[in-house]
Write a structure and sequence with these properties.
Strand order of the largest sheet: 6-5-4-7-10-15-16
Structural class: alpha/beta
CATH topology of the largest domain: Rossmann fold
Oligomer: single chain
Number of strands: 16
Bound molecules: 5-S-methyl-1-O-phosphono-5-thio-D-ribulose
Strand content: 15-25%
Largest sheet: 7 strands, mixed
Length: 352
């Protein structure tokens, strides 16, 4: 057996407050921020204090629970109307990761299912629901790890893009969860982490958490992936997802698509690891995924330093869509989906 991976404390519910590790300050400083109201949590999601699809879902649920605590007394209808307003505010933070909307829908459904109870009891039930979403995420990450690690062999080098680790979830990770599970099973995996411009989640966050866990990691610039694939230095690609369409198209961090194209060119398996909550059965293809456009300053600057001429035009889509035909397998907590995805995804969702 290999080493045991401790969870990263990405987010926590403590004494009716939400504690979030400020990812904007990593890797140089480990600072935890405390949030006492839902507006603060909404700002934290929007401002990338916490990011990564499953972590955003957990933060949204905890934000709703904080918001519910402040609603006060009255009828259920008035309570629910305020709850919807809270959910709408949190929903407006980031558009692409479906886990955000999945968690909000779950919180609303939970309130409705308990509408005949006293309001203070409903608030307690909503807190428990948020904590349930948190612990289920850790559990499903561990299952993703167990299911996915079978695809990795001792000694492999795996390329990952962005951060789909403990920091992007309640604490274990999806794509990195697979690597952690392989390491826990005694396999030595070397990770290559793409820098992931413009926000550098790979260089800053993936490298930080892999080092913290004592795993071997090499950071490369995004432009180097093809070179290393051509040299035979990469055995597999493993990434997370922000939204998976019913046909298996995968929306993930900008740059994922080009890595998938390169992997296909070099006949390297391209794996996606994600919980079932990342699958959006309501959309038939990746064309329907809303792609977040972020501040141009993320492209024009690195940190506080401007790297472009002033006033130059830039584009900054934060996600792209990898067509299902480039995806070798989708690893979930319920099992590994293989092509044709319309069938294997429906099977895993129980809608086949
Ligand atoms: O903009 P971010 O940092 O929230 O984007 C994160 C990603 O694209 C991750 O790969 C994805 O959310 C999966 S996290 C398990």
């Amino acid at each position: 057996m290999g080493i045991h991976m401790d969870l990263i404390k990405t987010i926590e519910w403590k004494d009716d407050k939400v504690i979030i590790l400020d990812q904007r300050r990593l890797p140089n400083e480990e600072v935890y921020n405390t949030y006492e109201d839902y507006l603060g949590v909404a700002q934290a999601i929007h401002g990338m204090v916490i990011r990564g699809a499953p972590a955003i879902g957990v933060a949204a649920a905890m934000g709703v629970a904080l918001g519910a605590m402040g609603i006060g007394v009255g009828t259920f209808d008035a309570y629910y109307e305020k709850l919807i307003a809270i959910c709408n505010r949190i929903a407006s933070t980031r558009p692409t990761a479906v886990n955000l909307f999945w968690a909000l829908d779950r919180m609303k459904a939970c309130a409705l299912a308990n509408k005949d109870r006293p309001l203070n009891q409903i608030t307690e039930i909503l807190k428990a629901e948020a904590l349930g979403i948190y612990s289920e995420d850790i559990e499903s990450n561990r299952m993703i790890g167990r299911n996915g690690q079978k695809l990795l062999r001792d000694g492999m080098t795996v390329l990952t893009h962005c951060n789909a680790g403990g920091l992007a979830t309640a604490g274990y990770g999806t794509a990195l969860g697979v690597i952690y599970a392989a390491s826990e099973a005694g396999k030595r995996i070397h990770v290559m982490a793409d820098e992931t411009r413009p926000r550098l989640q790979g260089a800053k966050l993936t490298a930080w958490e892999l080092q913290k866990h004592g795993l071997q990691v090499t950071v490369i610039a995004d432009t180097m992936a093809g070179h290393f694939m051509k040299k035979g230095k990469i055995d597999a690609v493993l990434v997370g997802a922000d939204r998976i369409a019913a046909n298996g198209d995968v929306a993930n961090k900008i740059g994922t698509y080009q890595v998938a194209v390169l992997a296909a060119r070099h006949k390297i398996p391209f794996y996606v690891a994600a919980p079932v909550s990342t699958i959006d059965p309501k959309i038939s293809s990746g064309e329907e995924v809303p792609i977040e456009e972020r501040d141009p300053q993320e492209v024009t600057h690195i940190g506080s330093i401007q790297i472009t001429p002033k006033y130059v035009k830039v584009e900054n889509p934060s996600f792209d869509v990898t067509p299902a035909e480039l995806v070798t397998a989708i690893i979930t907590e319920r099992g590994v989906c293989e092509p044709p995805y319309a069938e294997s995804i429906a099977q895993i969702l129980g809608t086949a």
